[in-house]
Design a protein that fits this description.
By secondary structure, this protein is α/β, with parallel strands linked by helices. It has seven helices and ten strands. Helix 6 links the parallel strand 7 and strand 8. It is found in: Cell membrane.
């Protein structure tokens, strides 16, 4: 199986202009991910785990290194050097991202949010309606909330909606940034069921979890990062 993602010498730093100071987030990050694999990344808070995912998704622009992604549309493309238009396409159609936080357009209901995600993939409105109902029921989001604005939801409800919106698209590459951090055990199991389903369908995943037991059952490889420097494999 060939690599779907290869990271070479990735580095990211941030400049605090008011202090005239540069802070290193990550450096010397190298990682290869085969198609269909689930890679887990562990490390202490502040070690740079989320920064890696944000560089792949390109919400952060790396200061150094290459992120080679094997795209269905563009072929082999360096995400660190891709145009904004290319990244918009990839985020819509190939690369999904789940974080602990939900950012949505104002005055968009939960139902509309999930349906839009499915329609973006080129599916029909009829299919989107059916799949939206299935995944919102799976995550036990009360049907009375479906036509409400997510800004009124509790933290757990927002997180379940966030996961549902990303997973329903069945992306080629799915980035999971501690998505189960504030979920109860029952909700975590529902996330696990969908992850296992996506794995069977061939989705490649890179995940960050604080709940290591939850992650170990799923991952093909686990890497640890310390103080932003290099990834060390901790199992095989």
């Amino acid at each position: 199986m060939e690599n779907i993602l290869t990271i070479k010498g990735l580095a990211k730093s941030f400049t605090l202009h008011h202090l005239n100071r540069k802070i290193k987030a990550i450096e010397h990050i190298n990682l290869s991910v085969k198609e269909g694999e689930f890679i887990g990344i562990t490390g202490k808070s502040g070690s740079g785990k989320s920064t890696i995912l944000r560089c792949i998704y390109r919400t952060y622009l790396p200061v150094q290194g290459e992120i080679w992604y094997r795209s269905k549309k563009f072929g082999l493309i360096d995400l660190a050097a891709a145009t904004e238009r290319e990244m918009v396409y990839l985020r819509k159609h190939e690369i999904g991202y789940v974080s602990q936080f939900l950012n949505v357009m104002p005055r968009t209901t939960a139902r509309e949010l999930v349906q839009q995600s499915i329609i973006e993939m080129g599916d029909s409105e009829e299919f989107a309606v059916k799949e939206t109902g299935k995944i919102l029921k799976h995550f036990e989001l009360d049907s009375e909330l479906w036509d409400s604005y997510p800004s009124t939801f509790s933290g757990g409800e927002k997180l379940r909606l966030n996961i549902a919106t990303a997973m329903v698209k069945r992306p080629r590459l799915l980035l999971l940034d501690e998505p189960t951090a504030s979920l109860d055990d029952a909700s975590k199991q529902k996330v696990k069921v969908l992850i296992e389903q996506l794995m069977k369908e061939g989705t490649t995943m890179i995940g960050i979890f604080h709940d290591l037991e939850f992650m170990k059952d799923l991952c093909h490889q686990e890497y640890n990062i310390q103080q932003g420097e290099s990834l060390v494999m901790t199992n095989s």
